[in-house]
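Design job #97: recover the sequence.
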């Protein structure tokens, strides 16, 4: 029998695991020319705050963490003021050495089910707009690009993120995405 990936909410005892997952993914991104995340950019305090303010989930295989994600209930910095129609997926992370194939999709599916269970009809995320691999990955999971946001990193580097969303029901969403002007924001 093959072990299955299970999920549990992270707590303060998981801070080191979350930082390790983030830094490992950030190093992989950097090694592959994706400049969205930097190692060391998200320390224990970031994850402690996200656990206190929202939901952070760990994916486990045989009790070992193999992935994680953050689920936010609002994201005004990126999406602007919105009615409560979406869940916002952030920091989708997999352990590239231990996670079985398909773990990223399992994480997305879990976030989408949590969002739908909260009565929200859209899952939203953003990713580096200049990287077609990331967009293609999310498009393959049912997400569509609905906008673009220009940003300025803390180090002054300018980049854009693609705003992506996925309807979670067959019924039309009654509150469309609000227009969000292209703006610059410090990140990091």
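Job complete. Output follows.
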């Amino acid at each position: 029998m093959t072990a299955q990936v299970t999920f549990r909410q992270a707590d303060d005892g998981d801070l080191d695991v979350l930082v390790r997952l983030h830094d490992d993914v950030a190093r992989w991104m950097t090694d592959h020319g994706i400049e969205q995340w930097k190692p060391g950019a998200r320390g224990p305090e970031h994850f402690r705050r996200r656990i206190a303010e929202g939901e952070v989930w760990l994916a486990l295989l045989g009790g070992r963490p193999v992935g994680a994600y953050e689920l936010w209930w609002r994201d005004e910095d990126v999406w602007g003021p919105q009615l409560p129609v979406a869940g916002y997926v952030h920091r989708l992370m997999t352990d590239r050495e231990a996670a079985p194939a398909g773990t990223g999709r399992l994480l997305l599916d879990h976030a989408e089910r949590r969002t739908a269970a909260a009565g929200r009809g859209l899952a939203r995320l953003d990713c580096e707009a200049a990287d077609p691999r990331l967009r293609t990955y999310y498009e393959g999971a049912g997400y569509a690009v609905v906008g673009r946001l220009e940003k300025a990193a803390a180090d002054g580097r300018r980049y854009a993120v693609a705003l992506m969303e996925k309807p979670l029901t067959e019924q039309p969403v009654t509150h469309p995405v609000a227009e969000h002007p292209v703006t610059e924001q410090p990140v990091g």
